Amino acid sequence: MTEKFELTNQTIKKEFLSLLQTNKFYKITVNQICNAANISRITFYRHYSDKFELLEDINNDKINVLQNYIRQRLHEKDISRILLQMTDFLEKDAEDFKQLFKINKLENQNCLEDKLKILLQTEFSYFITNKHSKTSIRDIPVTYLSELYAANATIFIKYSLQGETTQKLVGSLNTLQTLILEFLKTK
Questions:
Q1: Same domain for 115 and 95?
Q2: Model pTM greater than 0.90?
Q3: Summary mean pLDDT of the chain
Q4: Tally of domains in the chain
Q5: Stretch 134-144: mean pLDDT, rounded?
Q6: Helix axis angle, 112-132 relative to 94-102, nearest 10°?
Q7: Residue 24 confidence (pLDDT)
């Protein structure tokens, strides 16, 4: 990719996210995106086949950044620092994340929340099965534990976007993860 292509791509994403602040996803048209980005439809279609592919690309960008925090989180005894770093990251893009989380019914692709839950479940399952080499712990299937972990982490992320994260909450989540990991170690 050329630098100009990448700059145009970033402009398309930025203007699309800006349109999401005042419009519902399904109401946004390619023409609106082109007008906001000051590009032609031909230029848009050089980058994306439609607004769904654009949304998929943006969601994947967000997931890729969150993946780094999630992987770190599972390997730390004290996750407070990582949770605070993740919260800082989320605060910088809070409005974009809030709008992306509102898009929850998509055909043929996963929405951001679904992608996040899949990532969390996959990372947790991988962590547990590699650490314990089991498909269940204390008769609790790893898939169940993974879904529980994903739900808790997703709630924390959405809560963080509301600006409600406090040091006390982060400390409590750190304690909760410690208890869960200790529970998993015992037989």
A1: yes
A2: no
A3: 86
A4: 2
A5: 70
A6: 100
A7: 94
Cα angle vertex 156, ends 150, 160, to 5°? 145
CA distances for 17 relative to 22, 58, 80, 83, 178, angstroms: 9, 9, 30, 25, 37
Per DSSP, the residues of 124-153 read HHHHHHHHH--SEETTEEHHHHHHHHHHHH
29 shares its domain with 60: no
Sheet strands (E) in the chain: 136-137, 140-141
- d(C-alpha 35, C-alpha 18), whole Å: 12
Q: What is the pLDDT of residue 14?
A: 97
Q: What distance lies between CA 17 and its chain's CA centroid?
A: 15
Both 44 and 79 in one domain: the answer is: no
* Helix or strand (DSSP H, E) at 95: helix 94-102
Determine the average pLDDT of the residues in 118-147.
77
For residue 138, give its domain range. Answer: 52-185
Spell 120-157 as b/e; 16+ CB within 10 A means b. Answer: bbebbbebbeeeeeeeebeeeebeebbbebbeebbebb
Q: Are residues 61 and 8 in the same domain?
A: no
Same domain as 65, residue 19: no
Per-residue pLDDT reduced to its tens digit, 53-65: 999 999 999 999 8
CA dist 165 and 142 (Å) reads 28
For residues 91 and 153, membership in a common domain is answered with yes
CB atoms within 10 A of CB 17: 18
